[in-house]
Amino acid sequence: MTKNFHLLLAFLILALFMRVSGQELTHLSTVKLGAFDEGAAEMVDYDPATKRIFSINGEKKNVSVIDLNDPSAAKLTQTLDISEFGKSPTCVSTNGNLVAVSVAADDKQAQGKVVFFTTAGKLVGSVASGPLPDNLSFTPDGNLCVVANEGEPNDEYTIDPEGSVTVIDVASGKLGKVTQVSFADLKPDENTRIFGPGASVAQDLEPEFVAYSGDSKTAWVVCQENNAVVTVDLKSMKATGVKGLGSKDYSKEGNGFDASNESDSVEIRTWPVKGLYQPDGIESFVVGGETFIATANEGDAREYLVEHDNGEEEEFFVEETRVAKLKLDPKAFPNAKELQDEKNLGRMKTTTTMGDTDGDGDFDEIYGFGGRSFSIWDSDWNLVFDSGDDFETVTAETLGEGFNSTNDESAFKDRSDDKGPEPEAVVVGEIDGKNLAFIGLERVGGVMIYDVSVPAEAKFISYHNHRDFSADPETAEAGDLGPEDLEFIPASHSANGKNLLVVASEVSGTISVFEIK
Q1: Please, are residues 129 and 149 in contact by the beta-carbon 8 Å criterion?
Q2: In 22-128, where does DSSP find H-type helix?
Q3: Which of 74, 206, 223, 360 sees the fewest Cβ atoms within 10 Å?
Q4: SS3 call for 394
């Protein structure tokens, strides 16, 4: 059989799979915002009053404003210029008449800015944030804008600013008091990864994303590389604790994964490996008066190096290596030679900062990056649910030779040795009395849908991928590549009275609108 036949068969199976599942995404329209693989469509947010989407354009260094008054014909109508405040917009969020945009300084280790516009595009003002503001959003009650300041080191790891949170009072509809929340007094637990060379706790913690308790009294800030969450009390304006998320046991049935990009077929199986959850996107939701948090367990490694003019790379701190290069403890891994074969675990990327439990110089445990899943946690960050090996099982069944492909080319199992499909974004919306979680897969593409109405018993509903693996990735025919952010628009807020999902795809530079049927 030809490759094209296999691809056609995969798409037919996918269509059938979605029909029998009872939930479907129907594509309505797409807006192309920039060139291939230039980050032209990143973070997004929706304003229900003007029926507009605001999107970060990393290529053109501005904010794209997209009219959704006709969801079947979305169109770019305006751009917001942030150039006087810095060159790198990172996130956008709307609340009432305000649009907040986080902007990193030209020197990313310096203080950033949060720039405010009206939803009509008029500049309101700006305030200072911490270094490298990476994510921001408004509390559920709309009174505060909270900014996660990642504070990443420079490439040489000689300058390492502290991670922090900026809280801006907008209760009056105007810019009020600004509070910089320090992490200097936090004492990490044993599961929090503090491992940067010479870094203090505050320097090492790198805030990535923000979510809130239903009563707006607490903010949770996930620190992806640290595999931990910082709790911020929004009344006292203090960081009150940090908790590590621990690891996923890939040796347990239902937690398997495909580990090699060198083997010829899909082999989702259990392995003697632990996975650090390391969420990127997080989203809180309320069930029965209790707040839960859904996390997209992408994973991330620290790699700081400089490429010189002669093409040589100078490493200053790189934690990542392959399992084949580890010295494995013979008692813990009596079958080390077999495991380290490149068609088994040998190609899998792992960290050198964990696993030598007895300090004798070899590795007693193997840790991978990310969970290849999404999880649900309670408000104390105890694990309630994890999707296990669902994502790879479903994509293997539906995508055929597109399985574990990367996002800028179609290559079978290209990402199996890395972090698999890489769950990047998650959003939760209510439809017909049910809470549905939508999870975007950054590498292979597409959106997973789960019913999370009973968080401990979350159920897979369907998978939709608006991507054609047979097309040239640099062409429009390839569809959406590299979902970076999702926005759920309930029927009560949409222009056509339908529940909508907006997908921002970084690699294809597209914003696509789907009806949720």
Answers
A1: yes
A2: none
A3: 360
A4: helix
How far apart CA 319 and CA 77 sit, in angstroms, is 44
Pairs from 471-476 (Cβ < 8 Å, separation ≥ 24): 473/36, 473/408, 473/409, 473/410, 473/507, 473/508, 474/36, 476/32
CATH number (3.40.50.360, 3.30.1330.60, 2.130.10.10, 3.20.20.190) of 82-244 reads 2.130.10.10
Domains of the chain by residue range: 1-43+249-298+370-517, 82-244, 301-352
Task: Return the H-helix or E-strand segment holding 434.
Answer: strand 434-441
Judged by DSSP in three states, 146 sits in strand
Helix (H) or strand (E) holding 391: helix 390-399
* Phi, psi dihedral angles at 406 (to 5 degrees): -85, 180
Helix intervals (H) in 99-232: 201-204
Is the pLDDT at 16 greater than 50? The verdict is no
Closest CA to 68 of 93, 46, 37: 46
Mapped onto helix, strand or coil, the DSSP state of residue 200 is coil
Q: What residues form DSSP beta bridges with 23?
A: none
Q: How confident is the model at residue 6 (pLDDT cuts 50, 70, 90)?
A: very low
Distance CA 366, CA 352 (A): 9
DSSP, res 269: B
**Residues 508 and 491: beta-carbon distance below 8 Å:** no
Q: Quick check: helix, strand or coil at residue 330?
A: coil
What kind and span of H or E run contains 80? strand 75-81
Please give the Cα distance from 396 to 410 (Å, whole number). Answer: 14
- Whether residue 381 contacts residue 243, with contact meaning beta carbons closer than 8 Å, is answered with yes
CA–CA distance, 327 with 293 (Å, rounded to integer): 37
**Amino acid (one-letter) located at 456:** A
More confident: 415 or 18: 415
Does residue 249 carry a pLDDT above 70?
A: yes
Count of beta carbons in the 10 Å neighbourhood of residue 438: 27
Q: Would you state the structure tokens that stand for residue 163, as one six-digit string?
A: 């991670």
> Is the predicted pLDDT of residue 1 greater than 60, yes or no?
no
- The letter for the amino acid at 515 is E
| CA separation for the pair 441, 448 (Å, rounded) | 8
**Whole-structure pTM over 0.90, yes or no?**
yes
Average pLDDT of the chain is 95
Give mean pLDDT, residues 441-448. 98
SS3 448: strand
User: What gap in Å lies between CA 422 and CA 401, rounded to an integer?
Assistant: 17
Helix, strand, coil percentages in the chain from 3-state DSSP, rounded to 5: 10, 40, 50
Nearest partner of 87 among 106, 73, 72, judged by Cα: 106
Query: Is pLDDT at 446 greater than 60 in this prediction?
Result: yes
- Both tokens of 488, joined, read 């759920």
Name the H helices within 177-235: 201-204
pLDDT attached to residue 24: 87
Using the predicted structure, report yes or no on whether residue 14 has a pLDDT greater than 80: no
37: burial class by Cβ within 10 Å (0-12, 13-18, 19+)? Answer: middle
